[in-house]
Design a protein that fits this description.
It contains five helices and five strands, in the order αβαββαβαβα. By secondary structure, the protein is α/β, with parallel strands linked by helices. The radius of gyration is 17 Å and the shape is globular.
C-alpha cells in the first residue's frame, strides 16, 4: 500500500473506489462473467460536494458502460463491523465506539452490518440465477433489508 506523503485522500478514493473496481469489472467482462455486483453509496452523484460520492458516481457510470448481462449496485450509507473477541482492546474500543456513533445517525443514514450487505448480495445473486432480476438493479439500505426479510419468510 502506498503511504507516501504526496498521495492525497482523493488519490486513495480514486484508486480504491474507482480504478480497482472498474479494473475488476473489466477483467470479469473479459473472462465472460455475465453478472457484476459492487458496493457504492446512495449519495453517489456527479454534483456531490463530498469527493467519495463523486468518485462512486463515476465508478457506477464506468461499470454500467461495460456490457454485462446484469449489474447489481448495493448502496449502504455506512458499513459496520463490530469488534470481535480476538481483536486487541484498542481496536475493540474504536470499532465499538464508531458502531455506537453510527447508530445515532438519522434513520435514513443508519449503518448496515457488513454481514447484512453480504447476505443481501447473496440473495440477489440467487434471484438473478433464477431469472427473477435482469439488467441493472440498485439497492438502497431499505431494499437490501427487504431482500433479507423476504428470504426469511
Amino acid at each position: 500500500r502506498d503511504r507516501s506523503p504526496s498521495r492525497g485522500l482523493g488519490d486513495v478514493y480514486k484508486r480504491q473506489d474507482y480504478y480497482y473496481v472498474v479494473g475488476s469489472a473489466s477483467i470479469a467482462h473479459l473472462a465472460s462473467v455475465p453478472q457484476f455486483s459492487v458496493i457504492s453509496r446512495p449519495t453517489a452523484n456527479a454534483k456531490a460536494s463530498f469527493l467519495l460520492s463523486k468518485v462512486k458516481w463515476k465508478m457506477q457510470q464506468a461499470v454500467q458502460s461495460i456490457d454485462f448481462k446484469g449489474i447489481s449496485i448495493f448502496q449502504p450509507y455506512h458499513l459496520m463491523k463490530p469488534a470481535v473477541c480476538n481483536d486487541n482492546w484498542i481496536k475493540k474500543l474504536i470499532q465499538n465506539t464508531i458502531a455506537l456513533i453510527v447508530r445515532l445517525l438519522p434513520a435514513k443514514q443508519k449503518a448496515m452490518k457488513v454481514e447484512d450487505v453480504a447476505n443481501a448480495m447473496k440473495i440477489e445473486f440467487e434471484m438473478r440465477i433464477n431469472g427473477k432480476i435482469e439488467k441493472t438493479a440498485f439497492y438502497k439500505p431499505n431494499e437490501m433489508l427487504e431482500l433479507i426479510l423476504e428470504k426469511k419468510r
